[in-house]
Amino acid sequence: MDNLKLSDEQFTNIQESFHAFNRVYGIFFGVKKNTLNLIATILFIIFAMLLYILFVFPLAIQNGYIFLNTICVVYGFTPITTLIMTAITEPGVILKRQISDNQQPESSLTESNEEAIQIENNTQQDDIPKIYRERHCSTCNIKRPSKASHCRECNHCVDGFDHHCYWVGTCIGIRNWRYFVYFLIAAFSAPLLAFLVGIVLFINSASLAAALWFEMFDTLGTSVLIFYIFYCICGFWQHNTILNIFALIIMIFGPLVYTFSIFQNRETYQKYYYYENPYFTLFVSIFMLMISCILLPMTSTNCSNASKLKTTKQIHSEEEFRKEKRQFQFGQDKIEFNLMKKNLIQFFTYPIPKSRYQSL
Prior knowledge:
The chain is mostly helical. It is elongated and about 75 Å long. Helix content is 57%, strand content 6%. The chain contains 13 helices and 7 strands. A hairpin with a 4-residue loop joins strand 6 and strand 7. The chain has one domain.
């Protein structure tokens, strides 16, 4: 590309192929349509961090968990860092009209298993999944290389295309795939670590929590008891989803709000700080656990794909191919532990290809 002389019109056409990666404030390559998604994701992570810092951090320091708490707070910045790295890294966009029929893009992530080598050397295009075939892209006007695919959201082809992530606001391709997996692992493990710290603190304050429960029942008495009986009869037995959700919200927020008022108004508890209310810790811990549970399937799936050195697009293409050919075999996607370990080492160490954007 460095030695290729382009006319003004050709240069303009190549630049236009990066319309989805125009820089935002000189930093981000983020897609125009999904910039707000990226900002929303960052704000959500910051919100979760603030909950921990306000309600769990001071209690952990007070109870002597200084080292563990420091690790938790520092590691909490990892999801933001890896998210930004994913967003600012150009994923491997193949420039329009850059690749001729006899020219292939450079790719440093090579397949390590025998099946992939067979696919690469197979000359019968109809006998391999579509993702491994060389196909012509009418939109980009190029001969799309193996493992590349066209992103409808960004309207260009991406080398090693995995998927378009709306949370990150960009395509996931050969250049930012590793950063994306880093982000998922960090986004899953950071709130899980915060949950474990919160649960330890809540167990330590179990005696105070029990005292607040007895205080609440002693004050509200029959009304609280009637509510829980009503929940058990109408919610649990009748399997009413809406009623269950409503009751669970009250069960979580009710003690939280009421014990907060006890801390403020009762002489016995006025000496305590707000963060010593055990229900604040429990609420934040449950919130962190919910985040981890939501991210667990996504994280495990992408880590599993990385252990096979295959993108989501490749796996879906192979599944469609098997359905067309009616080639179903139980356990055919399973790989040995040693091969999985070798693939993961290669995934986390392969040299990221140079961006074609840098050649412009």
